[in-house]
Amino acid sequence: MEELEPLDDDQYVSKTKRKQAMQAMQDLGQELVELPPDRLKRLLEKVELSETLANALREYQRLPKREAQRRQLQYIGKLMRDVDPEPIQAALDVVNGASAAENAKLHRRERLRTLLLENEALALADIAAQWPQADLTHLRQLRRSALKEQEQNKPPKSFRAIFQLLKELEDGTAAPGEEA
Predict the structure, then answer these.
(1) Do 112 and 91 fall into the same domain?
(2) Of the four listed, 10, 47, 95, 108, which is most buried by Cβ atoms within 10 Å?
(3) In terms of C-beta density within 10 A (0-12 exposed, 13-18 middle, 19 or more buried), how is residue 136 classed?
């Protein structure tokens, strides 16, 4: 029988701590599989995960039975033991909008939209300075439509479109001169 080397006190991790760490990874896996497919796809684009783990996450969402899902979740937890949870948790917070940076972006867009509705010239000057590729004519049209919708108590379609356009500009996904 092989003699095991004694571990130093700072290297020793109790069985309870190991189980808690494994459970934490499985819980993180649970959060990932509960995401809607589009959010999961965005998260997988942001975080470098093994192909096996990415496929296991997608497979879970396809499974119909509770027992099959439970086994798949255990498998995901096992795969996640070899993964650093920090980038995954950070990306999950961003996708869920829970990070402070995402909240700040959201508030900045809302303030800019409110400013656009209240003071068109000032807001458009600010937008043009930040994003020279922005289609200011389209923003003016959306502003007029949003104000008209408010007056007539209609659903805020243009109001939301302004926010979406600002988000695309901020994220850099809007094509020059072609936002909508």
Answers:
(1) no
(2) 95
(3) middle
Domain final residue, candidates 96, 115, 130: 96
CA atoms of 108 and 105, how far apart (whole Å): 5
- 82 and 36, same structural domain? yes
106 within some domain: yes
Q: Does residue 179 lie within any of the structural domains?
A: no
Distance separating alpha carbons of residues 55 and 37, to the nearest angstrom? 12
4 assigned to some structural domain: no
How is residue 118 written in tokens? 């209240």
- Tokens for 48, please give them: 């470098």
Burial of 15 (0-12, 13-18, 19+ CB in 10 A): exposed
The pLDDT, as a whole number, for residue 6 is 53
Question: Is the model's pLDDT at 9 over the cut of 70?
Answer: no
Report the candidate in 157, 47, 9, 14 with the shortest Cα–Cα distance to residue 165. Answer: 157
Nearest residue to 74 via CA among 62, 84, 85, 66: 66
User: What CATH code is carried by the domain that includes residue 125?
Assistant: 1.10.60.30
